Request: fold
Amino acid sequence: MALNWSSLGEVALVGVGTTVGLVTVFSLGVRALAPPETPLGDTPADSGSRRPAPLMKAVAALCFTACVAAVAYGLYLMVPALH
Reply:
């Protein structure tokens, strides 16, 4: 039994690349939901909680949707009953 090393390397490379990409997109989504930072020494007039802008919420939703879609596609590829 021979092992096709180039195919094994290709699968490993795609797996690592996809993992890094998904972690990056998820991290961007989490960062988009974080409240805006205030520079040191500046105190906001209202000391209440600051919320992210609606555009940042939309960016976060898009990032999380892309992550869910990628995971769903991966499950679709692995589970034969879904084909």
Observations:
- The mean pLDDT is 90.
- The first helix runs from residue 5 to 33.
- The radius of gyration is 20 Å.
